[in-house]
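hey can u check if this looks right to u? its 838 residues, i copy pasted from the old doc so theres a chance i mangled smth
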Amino acid sequence: MKFRIGLFTVLFLLIIYTMSPILVSADSESQSIVRQRASYHTFFWDGSANTVEVMGEWDGWTNGTPMVEVSTNQWSANIEVDPGMYCYKFVVDGNWIIDPSNPYRGYCDSFENSIARVANETRPMFTHSIENETLYVYWHAGSGGEAPSSTPIGLLGSTWDAQNWTWSLDLGGLEDGKHTIHIEGFDTSGIPADDLLLPFWIGEESDFIWNDALIYMVMTDRFVNGNQSNDPTEIQGVAQGADWMGGDLSGVTSMIESGYFSDLGVNALWLTPFNEAANGTGLAADGVHEVSAYHGYWPVEPRSIDPRLGTSEELHELVDSAHAAGIRVMGDFVVNHVHEDHPYHIDHPEWFNEGCICGEENCDWTEHRLDCLFRDYMPDLNWKDRNASEQMIEDVLWWIETYDLDGGRIDAVKHVDDLAITNLAVRINERFETAGTDIYLKGETAMGWSGHNLESNSEQYGTINRYMGPNSLDGQADFVLYHATSDLVFATGQEDYMHLDYWTARSQDQYSDGSVMVPFVGSHDTSRFSSRSDPGTADEWNQWVEQGLPGQPGTDDPYRASLQAHGWLLTTPGAPMIYMGDEYGEYGGADPDNRHMWRNSQSQNERERGLQENISQLGVLRSELESLRRGGYQSIFNSSDIVVYQRSIGLDSSLIALNRGGTSTSIDIGSGFNDHSTVFGSGWIENNSNLLHISQHSVTVLTNESSYFESNITSPEREPDGHCLILQNLTVNESLYVALELTNICDKGINYPGVNVTVDNSLVEGFPGMLEWYYFIFANSTYNYSWQLILNETIPNGTEVLITFEAEILSCGDSDLFFHHCPNSRLTYSLIVEWPEP
């Protein structure tokens, strides 16, 4: 078995605190101590200066410690201080500055400072490397110099090298999937070592990066009821649609194990907060309606699961089932506020801001973003208070470690101090990103779209970028792209596909390098897409039953719009997110009406099932085509109703064509795409030409990725007179409408079939374009065709006209990889001309 871990062949990482003590090796005269932690804390600064010193909280900011220029423009200082956290700054030629190399920040006396986290040098520690399927763990003695007392927990079965203070553990026999090695131990004096956590994946999933993710958002209480014993009791006085409804963690697990998410191509789940939430109700923003905490964003306990959602064991089972299916699980972390019944608010009122209610008079959402309260029963956390901030960070770390989570969504990012995001990210990276596995942090920084040029949107992009980077969030919900496209392009059609193409491209060049953005077309905070795209209605933004709520759409239009939107979403760069129910076109108004219980296929109508089938095919296709996940974005063609773009990485390429218009068309897309075959939809590229033919209201995906065809297409055994494409059920009615069925009876799709028609009388017409009908017909699928014959009035009455219909695979070749064997299927029809009596 090939062993892969993260993206690295050889990995060596030190697990250290920011600005941690240097690890020193024993000198040649003291071989008994191989490695030992230093007894001092070292500060570094790079730059040109005459004098540099470090000032800090450890001595009340009274005495600066001079830094020494150890080499050109590289300064350092060693300070012996007790373990703990300290504010500090550098004084460079008399100017006080933040340490630019240390992202960890904190406040002292209302001033922001760098934070030194000074480790306890008396405690031993571990470092590690992984080489050729072997884990090497290195012991670093504490200040006492003692060796380890025994094999650490987590390294049972390893080999100890006493001379080099190193354990080696063979990882080659581990099964594919996610593993976590937790290394704990003591020295011979009984002093515990700083533990080391190594989460990693083995097998195919070890190659995963978050660009590969298709995220599915689950509002757990509104998804599936898998355990009726924990069903909540009804709350009196709560508004319709705003009470608990019984979905739970067991329900999510059942859907994982049923293969539902895998069949959608989903490989990451975002679960709304599962921490214990408030009982009773609170007033909604309108000040009239009472709503409950079913959504989880009103926490009342820091480290317990809401019993209405399940138990600790059930969350463990959910995560284990997800990992077994190759699915990552993301928590949802509320770091801006708590509910007024939370013990932190009761026991530590000094941890919270005393502000106005966001959005009320003289309480602007932006001006007061850091101290306003969402509601008066939701105290706003003051991240400038170090005790508060460190406690919130410890809680998030606890959830990730206890339940083996793979990432998290950070709620209300712009409403907390910047240090909340950077400090949290630094601690998560240090604790969990130790063996090449990335813990993905996605932010919610709700911004908008401010007009048709980049200058108008600089603040929007800038605010979102503010919280992303190597020591911050990995990505964010792409609110600019959402507001530029979801309603304006797809739901209402106010903007054209040239607008769509432009703003999709801007999401590739306006965000921080390395960020993995999350495009979306619907969420739990907006009215349902199918209701927003339902023409002729005016209730899509209503919230409450007395206002009149949207009903299920009764036309094809919302489902066509949704296929266009999701066809784009699932083929655009980033880690796209589907809000539960959008895969089949769930309807609903504003919160809470956009949070109906999820419905399975038995409760869906034909339009909904058809939409889900298409979105599922696109989702799975995305999981199978590297170019759709990791490729760059290149515009090929755009017009009012049509956009064609390419996703490519290396030589692998996919071409996507969206046509929201009611007319089929052909487009010259230039050279270089004749090796692309259709894998979704009915569009096709004409052989030996640059013409892409696309149907009305269609989504088409073509690719040249040979690995896709190798893994998805298998040829049936060839029979000398066998064929896969047959014509059947030919009828002609009194109005001379001809109907027939074209069926692929084989177990793989057919590329570029056609129906040719010949007539033995030149005075019979009515077969426009029949000689040029090319399609991709899915395995075991039937397509229905109909058209009207046109008879020239000079044809004598009683004339027999013989019409021949022939189905053939026009691009058929000898290779079993792409095409079938090619015998034709033929039907003939004898028509006797009978003119009506004059």
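The chain has a mean pLDDT of 90.
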